[in-house]
Amino acid sequence: MESGEWYARLRHEQKISQQVIIHGKSNRYALAPGQWINIKGSPLNNINDGVIILSVQGHGNRTEAYELEFTAIPYQALTLYRPAPIRWPQISGTLPARVTSPDHDTYGYIDTQGRYRVKFNFDLKTWKKGEESLWVRLAKPYAG
Predict the structure, then answer these.
(1) Is the per-residue pLDDT at 144 higher than 50?
(2) What is the CA radius of gyration of the chain?
(3) CA atoms within 13 A on the CB side of 2
(4) Closest of 86, 80, 70, 85 to residue 35, by C-alpha
(5) Which residue in 49, 60, 48, 58 sits closest to 24, CA to CA?
(6) Residues pairing with 53 in the sheet
(7) Residues 89-134: tens digit of each pLDDT
(8) Hey, which residues does 74 pair with through a beta bridge?
(9) For the purposes of burial, counting CB atoms within 10 Å of the CB of 41, is it exposed (0-12), middle (13-18) or buried (19 or more)?
(10) 90-111 burial: b if 16+ Cβ within 10 Å, else e
(11) Which of 60, 79, 90, 111 has the fewest C-beta atoms lying within 10 Å of its C-beta?
């Protein structure tokens, strides 16, 4: 199968799996995305085999009981669930920092994966030399 057909099939399966979206409320705190639940006594015919929970959002406070809102799709054994494609992560900016190294090191120390330790300008705490941050990679904008 060529890659164009493969991506078209994925998008087609995504649209099919999300034709029927169910929104509901519950007071069961254990509901989580990916769970299959069986709903009894529903007037909807297409959820006789149960539903798959896609997302949950719970809220409550001292004056109101805990309530959970969920989104689900009908369970179908022969239809695959395909989530919406995730956008490629992008860095929207940079953080200025200074490369650091342990004592008596003239140049910034680089580990075997090409990462540095840096001191961020917003970090006002005093740290041991060469341990100001976790290992970070040097990021450069594309040239040209």
Answers:
(1) no
(2) 25
(3) 2
(4) 70
(5) 58
(6) 72
(7) 776 777 888 888 887 777 888 889 988 888 888 888 888 888 888 8
(8) 51
(9) exposed
(10) eeeeeeebeebeeeeeeeeeee
(11) 90
With 0.70 as the threshold, say if the pTM is over it: no
Domain with CATH 2.30.110.50 in the chain: 3-74
Return the DSSP state at 2: -
3-state SS string for 73-103: EECCCCCCCCCCCCCCCCCCCCCCEEEECCC
Nearest in space to 120 (alpha carbons), one of 81, 141, 94: 94
Where does residue 76 rank: exposed (0-12), middle (13-18), buried (19+ CB within 10 A)? middle
Residue 51, Cβ density class (10 Å: 0-12 exposed, 13-18 middle, ≥19 buried): buried
> What whole-number distance in Å separates Cα of residue 92 and Cα of residue 4?
30
Cα–Cα distance, 81 to 52 (Å, whole number): 9
